[in-house]
């Protein structure tokens, strides 16, 4: 029996190390991507957070509920880490006020790149709670119920935050809507 951080484990030290290596292999890339999105593309900080989360797993392993998905649990910890960073450092995203010129998505690679840049800026500009549910839903592909569990919010709150996030983003990205062009110069 091995003792890890004051807790006895029925696993040998080699088995515990092997399990941690397997968890790291399975989840580190996904967590890194999540942290990069949530921490304004600060790769160094995101990498630090990935390392820190695996230390937290060791410290908080007794809090894991085997009736729940491990994937949801680890993202709950990740979400809380981002929330704490946001609270302690204020907005970790810089608000870009650059003007986005009207463009209609077509075959042009330039137009697509402009749209993708505007989309990323739009995500970055969301308030932290809205950004969290948006990233978890549309970039990490969690279900609404999983997001409610991860963020410790009601399902209604998750839906409300998604609604406001998508509404704000839709307003910011309106110049990229092909139907916008037909109404932009219409005579009243």
TrEMBL record:
Family label: Belongs to the sigma-70 factor family. ECF subfamily.
Gene3D superfamilies in the record: 1.10.1740.10, Winged helix-like DNA-binding domain superfamily/Winged helix DNA-binding domain (1.10.10.10)
Annotated protein name in UniProt: RNA polymerase, sigma-24 subunit, ECF subfamily
Stored Pfam families: Sigma70_r2, Sigma70_r4_2
InterPro entries linked: RNA_pol_sigma-70-like (IPR039425), RNA_pol_sigma-70_dom (IPR014284), RNA_pol_sigma70_r2 (IPR007627), RNA_pol_sigma70_r4_t2 (IPR013249), RNA_pol_sigma_r2 (IPR013325), RNA_pol_sigma_r3/r4-like (IPR013324), WH-like_DNA-bd_sf (IPR036388)
Segments forming domain RNA polymerase sigma-70 region: 25-91
Biological process annotations from GO: DNA-templated transcription initiation
Residues in RNA polymerase sigma factor 70 region 4 type domain copies: 118-169
Superkingdom per UniProt: Bacteria
Keyword vocabulary terms for this entry: DNA-binding, Sigma factor, Transcription, Transcription regulation
PANTHER family according to UniProt: RNA POLYMERASE ECF-TYPE SIGMA FACTO, RNA POLYMERASE SIGMA FACTOR HI_1459-RELATED
Coiled coil: none
Keyword Nucleotidyltransferase: no
GO function terms (MF aspect): DNA binding; sigma factor activity
Organism, scientific name: Fluviicola taffensis (strain DSM 16823 / NCIMB 13979 / RW262)
